[in-house]
Design a protein that fits this description.
Layout: E1 2-6, H1 25-30, E2 35-38, E3 41-44, H2 45-57, H3 60-67, H4 71-85, E4 90-93, E5 96-99, H5 101-127, E6 133-139, H6 141-146, H7 148-158, E7 162-168, H8 171-180, E8 185-189, E9 199-214, E10 233-236, H9 244-251, E11 259-263, H10 266-275, E12 280-283, H11 284-287, H12 290-293, E13 296-298, E14 306-315, H13 322-343
Parallel strand pairs: 1-7, 6-7, 6-8, 10-11
Antiparallel strand pairs: 2-3, 4-5, 8-14, 9-12, 9-13, 9-14
Helix pairs in contact: 2-3, 2-4, 2-5, 3-4, 7-13
């Protein structure tokens, strides 16, 4: 089974139906079987789950319903945390609850701890031959369009008990999600400035990024990259310093063009370029797709396209679950079969 969803924060791991099983009344009754030690004290995992649920639900009543405990029991768990830490973790009002600055810090750590515990349980099961659990894959739109469907098909046939969740996002968001452990594998262009030692990258196939403009744009007549230096470009990412347009120009010894717009999605880039006077960069496979080709023209330049490498990234510090290794093998197989016809 698999799900495809747009970029969003994954917060379902701490709910009553998390991969570690429900956090029901029995957990509250026994005080939480799993604890975290700090400064000689023990912090109950059940209390941390109560805090996470309260912050994510914005309501103590909804959080109690989610965890299957009474509201007084949930309130008691959070009060215990606040007494142990000697600080307020929630701002309470008649409309609900919000996390304090201290509560946000503990919330982020609690979510990460729950995720790591879930991954550990899955890895132990898989090492014992029980191929169950879940994998979360972050993928750029090109990978979702080309490699992911075949990978899901073959992987799902071999491991039907592993649930796959696909998150479509740009590579900058992928690195953040991978760093936090929110995704197991990130599939996208391998950054040239990849932090050494933090991630391991496995090349899959080359990508040609081509400049595109709207139908009828005067920039469509450009023949050299320098002819597009004065055009406004659409940059993908948080700042123009991280955009492919900058990389394209710098590789040819040119000053990067000005940013006409900043977007964090391929759909946003398509919309802006198709309806305005900006230039953008798209993977050739997307640019020639009928949906895009109906509205955009590819600009043929003497310099050719911007060549990138599509790869799979994983965290080097994390011990890879067997399911991740098998997924990477299926991903390589899909890339091989995708590239071979193009080379024929």
């Amino acid at each position: 089974m698999y799900f495809v969803q747009p970029l969003q924060r994954l917060s379902s791991l701490t709910g009553s139906k998390s991969r570690n099983g429900p956090a029901g009344p029995e957990d509250a009754a026994n005080g939480g079987a799993i604890t975290a030690r700090y400064h000689g004290r023990r912090m109950k995992l059940t209390s941390l789950r109560a805090l996470v649920a309260a912050i994510e639900e914005g309501s103590l009543r909804s959080a109690a319903r989610r965890l299957g405990v009474s509201q007084p029991a949930l309130t008691k768990l959070i009060r215990e945390l606040e007494r142990e830490l000697a600080t307020s973790l929630l701002l309470r009002s008649t409309t609900g609850v919000l996390a304090t600055a201290q509560g946000k810090v503990l919330y982020e750590r609690a979510v990460a701890a729950e995720r790591e515990l879930s991954d550990a349980v899955e890895q132990i099961h898989q090492l014992g031959g029980r191929m169950t659990g879940a994998l979360t894959i972050g993928a750029v739109p090109l990978a979702v369009m080309t490699l992911i469907p075949e990978t899901l098909r073959t992987f799902g046939l071999e491991f039907p008990q592993i649930q796959l969740r696909i998150i479509e996002e740009l590579y900058i968001q992928q690195l953040t999600a991978l760093r936090k452990g929110e995704v197991d594998v990130a599939v996208g262009p391998v950054p040239e400035d990849l932090p050494p030692g933090e991630f391991a990258a496995e090349p899959l196939m080359p990508i040609d990024m081509v400049p595109v403009v709207r139908k009828g744009s005067p920039f469509a007549r450009a023949r050299r990259l320098a002819d597009l230096a004065q055009a406004p470009w659409v940059y993908t990412g948080a700042t123009p310093e991280s955009g492919y347009a900058r990389t394209f120009f710098e590789r040819h010894g040119l000053k990067p063009p000005r940013a006409g717009a900043l977007v964090n999605s391929t759909l946003g880039l398509l919309s802006i370029v198709a309806s305005g006077n900006c230039v953008g960069l798209l993977p050739q496979q997307i640019a020639v797709h009928p949906f895009a080709a109906e509205h955009l023209d590819i600009v043929s330049l003497a310099e050719g396209p911007l060549r990138l490498e599509l790869g799979a990234l994983v965290r080097t510090q994390a011990a890879l679950k067997p399911a991740v290794r098998h997924f990477l093998a299926h991903l390589h197989r899909a890339a091989y079969h995708f590239v071979q016809p193009a080379r024929a």
